[in-house]
Amino acid sequence: MTWIAKPRLHHPSLERNRVGYTRRDYEGKISTLCAGCGHDSISAAIIQACWELDIEPHRVAKLSGIGCSSKTPDYFLGNSHGFNTVHGRMPSVLTGANLANRDLIYLGVSGDGDSASIGIGQFAHVMRRGVNMAYIVENNGVYGLTKGQFSATADQGSKSKRGVVNTDSPIDMVSVALQLGATFVARGFSGDKPQLVPLIKAAIAHPGAAFIDVISPCVAFNNHAGSTRSYDFVREHNEAVNRLDFWPSREAITAEYAEGEVIDVAQHDGSVLRLRKLAADHDPTDRVGALNLVQSRSAQGELVTGLLFVDPDPEDLHRHLGTVERPLASLGTRELCPGQAALDRINASLR
């Protein structure tokens, strides 16, 4: 077998961001996915988002489970921390890592099989606990590694490549995330990079459980007539609820973005998410309204994309538990084992 490696040399004229990195510095290994796979477009969007946010790659921890989607962290941020867990268990491993070191930026990448089937319980608890992470599901409606069986997100009535009709009701990950208390919920399309990059940037900056469901067509098994996850179907049935731009708090908002109806959503960390609304009746701070919108449009066969809900004052797991600001992994024996007197006081408080 012949392995092809990317050249390490960069052209000296490549643009650098504020921390001195070129976009190439955020890439990983060469993708082994099928040519045209939507997952590669998502990887490119993550690379672009991290470069634009001036994130130092070593500050990122990327975790995944099993499946085509869970292979993709190997294709971006090659100089970051990475962990490929077992099937469906990425959220619990990420939760433990987050509790140990809150200073890292956590990026969980999963698929519809990994998160909506074997990992649905893990997904539920990481959302309701508010773990500070960006959770991206690369949703193609099939199990690509095992030759295209329907996944739990496949729409009822959709047809497989072999003509089999799905009779099971689908799990809508967006609706589940809204019901479980995620404080940032969005849906994107791998073929719409101008929308997807700002969504990923906003999710990374959001201090809480941020979830993005990205419709990502499988060119090998789910890109045919009769599929509701194909490129043609999504483009024909996509309704964008807003057009997005994202600015970290350190950057000024220029006048060119001031036209039209605008909503500024102040984040807890001081960053600003600015939405130019296309649907006048959609309020991105209304959780129930977002859920109703997703369900009503779904009943009409439409996929709603964009930022569906954001809580302007989210709380993450560390805030719920009252942990110290210093990462637990950096605490020494003196802090972790304060002595018998401290243990006696704790025991007395529980009597």
Structure, explained:
The protein is α/β, with parallel strands linked by helices. The protein has a single domain (23-330), classed as Rossmann fold (3-Layer(aba) Sandwich), CATH 3.40.50.970. It is 30% helix and 19% strand. The protein has helices at residues 38-52, 68-71, 90-100, 112-116, 120-128, 173-180, 193-205, 231-237, 287-299, 317-321, 333-336, 340-349, and strands at residues 60-64, 81-84, 105-111, 133-139, 142-143, 149-150, 184-189, 209-215, 238-240, 242-247, 262-266, 272-277, 303-310. An eight-stranded mixed beta sheet has the order 2-1-3-4-8-7-13-9, sandwiched between helices. The chain has a three-stranded antiparallel beta sheet with strand order 10-12-11. The chain has a two-stranded antiparallel ribbon with strand order 5-6. The radius of gyration is 21 Å and the shape is globular.
List the helices and strands and how they pair.
Layout: H1 38-52, E1 60-64, H2 68-71, E2 81-84, H3 90-100, E3 105-111, H4 112-116, H5 120-128, E4 133-139, E5 142-143, E6 149-150, H6 173-180, E7 184-189, H7 193-205, E8 209-215, H8 231-237, E9 238-240, E10 242-247, E11 262-266, E12 272-277, H9 287-299, E13 303-310, H10 317-321, H11 333-336, H12 340-349
Parallel strand pairs: 1-2, 1-3, 3-4, 4-8, 7-8, 9-13
Antiparallel strand pairs: 5-6, 7-13, 10-12, 11-12
